Amino acid sequence: MDENRLLERININPAIYAGKPIIRGRRLAVEHVLGMLAAGDDIETLLEGYPWLEREDVLACLLYARRLVGRERVEPGLLEGGW
């Protein structure tokens, strides 16, 4: 599946999570999926926990995050303080 088709799975609805990006209009935020992956969950664990979720949804979340980070620019002096 090409990147543009994957990104069609990510929606923004002001009535759900105050407009945060969500997956296919459902009440599962991209942020939540990324957090679970960052905590060490694998894609299979996510798919088991959310039966309606598809592998392509998780890949869409990763692509969405990559594109956001790809646009980000950080001033060198800001890196010294950490997060």
Could you characterize the architecture of this molecule?
The chain has 83 residues and is mainly alpha-helical. The protein is 51% helix and 7% strand. It has helices at residues 3-7, 30-38, 43-49, 55-71, 76-79, and strands spanning 10-12, 21-23. It has a two-stranded antiparallel ribbon with strand order 1-2. A hairpin with an 8-residue loop joins strand 1 and strand 2 (21-23).
Features:
mainly alpha; 7% strand; 2 strands; 83 residues; single chain; 5 helices; two-stranded antiparallel sheet
Task: Describe the secondary structure blueprint for this structure.
Layout: H1 3-7, E1 10-12, E2 21-23, H2 30-38, H3 43-49, H4 55-71, H5 76-79
Antiparallel strand pairs: 1-2
Helix pairs in contact: 2-4
In the sheet with the most strands, the strands line up as: 1-2
Number of helices: 5
Overall geometry comes to globular
Query: Beta-strand level of the residues, as a percent range?
Result: 5-15%
Average pLDDT reading: 91
* Amount of helix: 40-55%
**Main β-sheet, in a few words?**
2 strands, antiparallel
* SSE order: HEEHHHH
Radius of gyration: 14 Å
Low-confidence stretches: none
**What is the first-to-last residue Cα distance?**
35 Å
Question: How does the helix and strand content classify structurally?
Answer: mainly alpha
What is the count of β-strands?
Answer: 2
